[in-house]
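During the first year of the project, the team set up a workflow for recording each protein of interest as an amino acid sequence followed immediately by a discrete structure-token representation. This format lets reviewers and collaborators read both layers of information side by side without switching files. As required by the reporting guidelines, we include two representative entries from the current panel. The first entry is reproduced here exactly as it appears in our internal archive.
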Amino acid sequence: MRKTPAFLLSGALATALTIAALPATASDAGNGEWTQLKGAPAPISNPLKGFFPFAPDDGSELPAAEGSLPYTMEWTYFPVSDVVTAKGVYDWSKVDKMLDAIASRGHQAVFRFYLDYPTRKSGVPQYLIDEGINTSRTYTVFDNNRVSFSPDYNDPRVQEMMLDFVKALGEKYDGDARVGYLTAGLIGFWGEDHTWPMNGEVSADNPKGENWMPSDEFRAKLVAAWDSAFNDTHILYRLPTEATKAHHMGYHDDSFAYSTLDNVDWHFMAHMKNQGEDKAWQNVPIGGEVYPPLQTCIFSQPLNCPGAEAEKAQGRNFDMIESIKATHATWLINHKAFLVGYKGADLERAKEANALMGYTLSAKKARTTVKDSSVTVEAEIANTGLAPFYANWPIEVALVNSKGEKVVSKTIESPLPSVEPGSSTTVEATLDLSSGVGERAAQTDSAPVSGDLTAVLRVVNPLPNGAPVAFANEAMGTTLPGYLSLGTVSLGSSLPAQPSTPKGNESSTPGGSTEAKAATASAEKQSAEAPKTKLASTGTVGGAVLAIAAGALGLGALLIRRTHA
């Protein structure tokens, strides 16, 4: 699992940039004026974060109850038997059908595979049952009534299947735009990595003190398999171990706000601190599920959850806000909240909790600098939330004319995963107005560019219709939906838009073709009258610098430096 993103530009852009040192401060990078940008309250909803429900089993959209919150992800389970149809044979059709259904609503999926789900038919592949694996571990706890069985996780045949399955799963879905996060699953009831009360302790439900969990050795081997199979999609485990720590897994608390805080030794944060993983959120996501009995009542004041006082006397928490702050949680399943909804003050508190989770991005200041036929756009972006923006989604910077057409744009790799809460980064892109690219260029081959252009920026959701990343700024969506407006570039004279030189006409002599030289000369002449820039008022910041500059020859510079705001 990649813990710290590698900031390397990909594809064609990578070939167009070179790496070099930058000035010591952002203000040295150009001759424009920094202008503050006005902030706004944190968005209630954003992609890859917040509360979300289960997707219906048939893939349909969950009917929204009155008082429901907006959401951008949906949870689902899959039995391994849906995919593994024979040894080493995989049928992904049911998974793809569900992922496509969720994606059709602009949402990413979060899911888990299981072998044993109480009250559901076994998820163990049929070929293993036919081979004669142990199926005698039936049980009645969790209302199962012996419907399913717990497989022998130490059986070499079961272990081989799991390791091969994880490898195939990664080959199929690592980096898939339809997938938000994966929880490791496979082992234990519901795939939650536990078999309690069959945990080796004698109890009324386990009179023989049986332990149905696999060996620690195999559990570590399975963690390593997840790490090997997934480089882009984050994998989350129920609780930390030495293996999950070594392989930089994320984590999820399946009883969130019930047994989260560390006032009891078996609570989630107690485990995290004991393993030294209480700061894991700095690099990997933390998720979970609001404890189901609390989902409809957790935001009531005073708390009106049935049996709450007796549970609190035994150390339970029932404190949603403090649990979110302690874990730095990014996402939480909260299914009943969408089935029932909230009202009045409860709804407002739910909105507050939703906005609190995960990242909150805010552009604090921006500037544009015009030189020859190019415009350099810079924006300092702060993370004022509780966790990083973990996804390596690229950033698009563009100039838009008065008709709402993108005249030119550039997509760059994002530094946002490295920006911790309280830190900032400056994104810089130089846009070449002579290149003849963009929506306008598709309509007019060589018409000049003139007048006012608005600089905009967005984080690109790789899901084509996915929810846009909303910044906590007043200018979010004011020029184009899903884009943050940074300010206006006023071109004092028109700049020529020249189409790219066709392949096969490039000159082998220094300086390029005659056409290229003419275009350069024309641009230099146009720069005699220096265009002016103006930006709307808004924020403040100091932070890291990612500077990416690309001119007409496709050269640039890249430097990352992070400081705390």
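The second entry, processed by the same pipeline in the following quarter, appears below.
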Amino acid sequence: MIGYSKEVADRVLRILQAGGQLDQDELRNVMNQQNGKSPEVLSSLIHNGFDEEVIQTILSRAYALRRKSVTPETIDKDILKSLPIKFIKKEGIIPLAKEGRFLRVGAVDPTKATLGGQIKALTNFNVEFFVIKLSDFEACLETEDIKNLQTETEAAKDKNGDKPMVVQRRRTPRWNAEDASLVAAFCDDMLQASIDLDVSDIHIEPFRDTARIRFRINGVLEIMDSYSNYLFHNYSAVTTRLKILADCDISEKRIPQDGAITFKTKDGEDVDTRFNVLPSKNGERIVIRLLKGDPALSIEKIGFAESDLTKLIEAISAPQGMVLVTGPTGSGKTTTLYAALQHINHPGKNIMTAEDPVEYYLEGLGQVQANEKIGLTFESILRAFLRQDPEVILVGEIRDQQTVEISVKAALTGHLLLSTLHTNDAISAITRLSNMGVPSFMISAALSLVVAQRLARKNCQSCLVPDTTVTEEILENIGFDADEIENINFRKGGGCGECNGTGYKGRQGIYEVLRVTAPVEEKILANAQAPEILEAARLDGFKTMQEISKEYIRDGILSIEEYTRVLVVN
């Protein structure tokens, strides 16, 4: 029976009961008829006339997926052929439309969004899921197009006997799965491709019946389908080769290992990487982080607004104080810190850095790589730094109470200290320091500036089109008022040769810069809550990342979809 999983049905029924939207007598009757099985109960309620809009709204909010209305007339016949009919009917999903490199798929049950990898393997399209109504899905199954596809599938099965149909990939794999001598060349090609595509991370992953390589490009993971066949048939050989390059123990497959790979590009340049291998049920998973060397970026060119740039330069030019950069992994924190170091780096300053690992190499800096295995922790390095007569100290990340205590003391005793924290926004950094045991009077005295940041994919300016997927409800949730919704021309990249059909080209830094002014200091000393600190910061022209992003949306730089991906926390 096509419908909902028990997890989804139970959740919806609980919400409906809590909201008083279900007639209890009717519910009891239906449950008796369906022997208390919640998926069948929910389907029965819908078939008996319950408002399906309510259920769709609940599922959309509970699983953070957008809704979609579907009719048999709105589905393209060619799109239906992109997935096997048996798969469509079994999973309760249906392909809706192709946009650039994305395939939009409707799902009755939102937990089916976990099938994105399988659909990608079948179609070679990235997948975006929407919640659709059960009734809409059932209506689509009754169309002649679906029935014809089923007839064609059955005819093919009769022709081939009991042999399963083989779904052909769109790309022909480059690698011969029978030739294990190509392992070294395979690894070299993969690493070179990561440079050509400006990849930040390589994910190598085994599964029971397949294996895959994913590249993180512009902050988003993409499957490199052309490698999958060879990788699956030679997985052990590939992992062994990479572990040798990373100087890891190839005989040890029970515990995680860290290493590093340095390889030469086709242009003769050395590229350093950070390597991690992790045992899993189906084999060893590998993640390789590419360290791009000298960023060659000036602080003026990484995307700060003029007023925020002035605040940052003033803070890093001061003789003492603490400057923190916050944001999730992959948001460009290290790049910002090193651009700042480049700005103040000159022979008259002694600059020391403690990192894990050293990602950028800058001439004139004393760079030390942490190694916890031998006791070379951030804490021990910092203590040693204070005996090296530095003016500027960079700590890769403040992770624990010992490190934060030494860092704050360094900032209070005539040193400029730069570091990173993992917080969602700039004001949360103050709360985080307090939670780590730093007294409020020390925070107010030591902290000079906090930068919170994200990296978002920019709309390709060569293929901008109106964004027809945006709804008034989505815009209101983001914070646009009625006048803005009426007057702004919301746009996105449609997909073209310039952006390889993705609709995105390049990335835009989104920064909020909190300067610890006198009003902010007062709020910190008073242990004020975040809204009060925010109000004090606004006196200095502070803008949140959400407010800055809305300006980028108005200018056609960001799409609503990318804003939601990067900045909306569900």
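For the second entry, the following points were noted during internal review. The chain has three domains: 6-148+155-160, 180-291, 299-454+509-542. The longest helix spans residues 144-160. Both points are flagged for discussion at the upcoming steering committee meeting.
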